[in-house]
Amino acid sequence: MSAASPSAHPARARQAVLVEPGRLELRDYSPPPPGPGEMLIEVRCALSCGTDLKTWRRGHPLWKLPTPFGHEFAGVVAEVGPGVSAFRPRDEVMAAPTAPCGACFYCGRGQENLCESAVGRMLMGAYADLLMVPAHIVAQSTFIKPAHLPFEEAALLEPLSCVVHAQEMARPEKHETVLIVGAGAFGLLHLLVLKAAGIRETAVVGRGADRLRWAGELGASRVIDARSADAAGEVAKLNGGFGPDLAIECTGRLEGWSDALARVRRGGRVTFFGGCPPGTALSVDTRRMHYDNLTLLAPFHYRPRDVRRAYQMLSDGGLGAGAIINAHRRLGEIAQVFALLERGAVLKCAVIP
Ligand SMILES: [Zn+2]
Ligand SMILES: [Zn+2]
């Protein structure tokens, strides 16, 4: 069953629901007409994300199961609710799935990424024919997709916003050497943003023959196999033998966190980008931290200004971020998508209704 054409209210659609860890079901549902400020969109592409994979494996503290699933998407407006003036049916749109309240302590401090109602009211359900976009997302986090930008690349708005936020905190400079720990989708998205910013030397240390090859193809100036006997020695040789100025951890594993901390040069910065499982504790040698004058950063989520910047970068083109998407499946094959991700066989998979 597919979505009806824009303008008439589409009666039926399919939506993937995570029933319990490891079990995704494609269910039929009938979306109601959009309420005030809301907008119903026909999903043209949804992207798989590391967060989805973690949630698929073990559930997530923020979402009670069963839950509609998927949060990275782009599509076409099917119907707008009362009071929506910025968008019309048939507009091509892209969105980030959260928006801050604008009124809490953190929003007042410009740290909207920590607003509890941002992540608490995250939009889920993008693996579907139709998605109801709530009023706060329509008002703050939805944008017109430039005609030249493919839907699947537009759907990268959310992960790219996280990367933009992280790099905004770390502020890599052109003359610096940056080490990315982890060659997954986020590691390689960081790589593309660093390349676009003209960073002199970008090294990726990771594992898996495919991923290391992709890192090279996407332009890493050096690719280091984490499993090779002398990986640490190779990293130490970077930057004229001083080691990287900035290490960006993108594995979400304690091993990656320790590695990033161990590899950065004296006076350098470490960005801990990948969230680890609850209860993970990192041990830090205070001597190393103090006498080597390290700066440790742990960016979480994104702020509206990061989303606007990410939107600008995607709209301008030149990032080549679409290269991160290296598999395509139909919505009907959603269960297989997660089996594929589990095997590490793809970076990001585009799910097409
Ligand atoms: Zn995501
Ligand atoms: Zn807030």
Kindly describe this structure.
The chain is α/β, with parallel strands linked by helices. The protein has helices at residues 50-58, 105-108, 116-120, 135-140, 151-154, 157-170, 185-196, 209-217, 231-236, 238-241, 254-263, 286-291, 304-316, 334-342, and strands at 13-20, 23-29, 39-47, 67-68, 72-80, 92-95, 130-133, 142-144, 177-181, 201-206, 222-225, 246-249, 269-272, 295-297, 325-330, 348-352. Strands 3, 5, 6, 7, 8, 15 and 16 form a 7-stranded mixed sheet that branches. A 6-stranded parallel sheet has the order 11-10-9-12-13-14, with helices on both faces. 49% of the residues are buried. Residues 49, 51, 71-72, 158-159 line the site of one zinc ion.
Uncertain runs with pLDDT below 50, 5 residues or more? 1-6
The average pLDDT score comes to 95
Number of separate strands: 16
**Helical proportion, percent range:** 25-40%
Bound compounds, each kind once, are:
zinc ion
Biggest β-sheet: count, sense, barrel? 7 strands, mixed
C-alpha-based Rg, rounded:
21 Å
* Total helical segments: 14
Classify the secondary structure makeup into a structural class. Answer: alpha/beta
Report strand %. 15-25%
User: What is the N-to-C succession of helices and strands?
Assistant: EEEHEEEHHEHEHHEHEHEHHEHEHEHEHE
- The coarse silhouette is globular
Q: Give the termini distance in whole angstroms.
A: 10 Å
Question: Characteristics of this structure?
Answer:
six-stranded parallel beta sheet, seven-stranded mixed beta sheet, 24% strand, globular, alpha/beta, 353 residues, binds zinc ion
